[in-house]
Amino acid sequence: MINKIKSLRKLPRHGILPGGRAIQQARDLAAAMGTGPTPTSEPTTTTGQVYTDQQIQALQQAAVDNYLTQQALIAQSNQNGQTFQILNLADDILNDTKEVVTAGLWSDNLTELTSYYTGSLTTTQKRYYVNVYQKDYLETGSAVQFALAYGNSNGYGSSALGTLDDAASRAIYSQYKQLLLDKNTSKFSTVTSGSTDSIYVVNFQRNRSKEKLDPANWELPLTGIISRDTNATGSVAVGAVSGSITLIDDSSLTDGSVEEAGTVYNVVSGSITAGVYNSAAPHYYGTVYPAHSAIVLDGDILDAQLNFTTNTGSNSEGDNHFALYHSISGSYSASSAGFQARNKETITSTIYFIRIKNGDFNFSNNPSYTSGSYGEIAQQTFWGDPKSYITTVGLYDDKQQLLAVSKLSQPLLKSKKREVNIRVKLDY
To answer: What does the longest C-alpha to C-alpha distance in the chain come to?
Structure first.
């Protein structure tokens, strides 16, 4: 495909300056004088005005000079008055360039979240998960940042509603197992404790994590639970007296393991700035799945290290995911630790280099640019030095169909004294 560029301000086909009537005058004089020798008598015009031989020759020369000037301007306009510039596929277009971009994952591209609010959910929804906002969900600008859920392979910790298959915790465990684990793996596991029936899940809002959660650039703060009701939506007391930790992944120590869910890493205690705590023998807490923007924590380990006291009763509505919410939300007041996270994406681009020489795109097709029946340039200061302002670059296919439009941040002056290089980047 041949790609073309078209300036928003197209060039006219010609730019005749005032004085075009001199061309006709030259023709009249040439017709009157013929091609023979200069007459000895003093010729007269139809108005009776008498010209000397010298005056006739001067007028004729002036008319010819003016005509030649006009023709030169027309030729230059036709040559430089292109409205399309054909791009060279080898020199002007750079295909499939890749760039890795990271940014703050939270609203307004923030990298740290320190305030947490739960939203209004139906009773049925609350049994499965809780959405966490950065502001009160009724406040302008409030948006879901991440969601929390609790899963149990046996359906413990939630009401069976008459049958074990209807337990919310069982549904959550099964859902994430199918999403994240290899097809021959039946349970989540942690390096030191092996398989577990009890998991807590942090699921980032997908549009925030973009391509994936950025490994080595997230830090989850947790504070211990002092006491809680059987139902964690009730009274829950948290504080540093029961321990406070921050969790990261071990991507600084390992390349991770490649599974059906992508490259996965272990969740360990540590911090972004200091790295993995006790790197020779890390403390493991679960697994992170960056490609799915999900962190799965081992419920048994959270019980042992942070006193989560997970409700694992049969047919008991424990709402354990609210315990994780209180642990995260209480961490800032307990230890001034916020939830840090960044997203990561690889952007593929095609770059078009638009190189405009000094003689190109110096005219405009705006009706106000010319005047009169001869299409004379209206602004006298532009005579001999035309100027225009480029505001838009259009990319066309070989059938002159507009495919993409790129707007400049501000109008760009173009004249004979200025050459321009414009870089158009098309991301996909």
So the answer is: 128
* Element holding 104 (H helix, E strand): strand 93-104
The answer to whether 105 and 204 have CB atoms below 8 angstroms apart is: yes
Q: Kindly give the interhelix angle for 53-80 and 21-33, rounded to the nearest 10 degrees.
A: 140
Tokens 């300036």, located at residue: 7
Q: In what order do the strands lie in the sheet with 387-396?
A: 85-86, 4-7, 387-396, 402-415
pTM assigned to the model: 0.70
Query: What DSSP string runs through 200-245?
Result: EEEEE-HHHHTTEE-TTS-BEEEE-EEEE-SSTTS-EEE-GGG-EE
Between the CA atoms of 179, 180, 186 and 187, what dihedral angle is there, to the nearest 10 degrees? -120
| 321 CB burial (10 A radius; 0-12, 13-18, 19+) | buried
Name which of 55, 23, 21, 24 is nearest 38 in CA terms: 55
Instruction: Tell me the pLDDT tens digit for each residue of 59-108.
Output: 888 888 887 877 666 555 555 555 678 888 888 999 988 989 999 999 99
Contact 376, 14 (CB under 8 A): no
Cα 129 from Cα 135, distance rounded (Å): 18
Question: Where are the chain's structural domains?
Answer: 4-92+348-427, 106-340
For residue 286, what are the β-bridge partners?
Answer: 267, 297
Distances (CA, A) of 368 to 8, 17, 78, 149: 15, 15, 20, 65
Q: How far apart are CA 11 and CA 13, in angstroms?
A: 7
| pLDDT bucket at 32, cuts 50 / 70 / 90 | low
Task: Report which DSSP code applies to 327.
Answer: H
The answer to whether 155 and 169 are in contact (CB under 8 A) is yes
Three-state DSSP at 324 gives helix
Per-residue pLDDT tens for 234-263? 999 998 877 899 999 999 999 999 999 999
Q: To 10 degrees, the CA torsion angle through 139, 141, 143, 145? A: -110
The answer to whether the CB of 321 falls within 8 A of the CB of 84 is: no
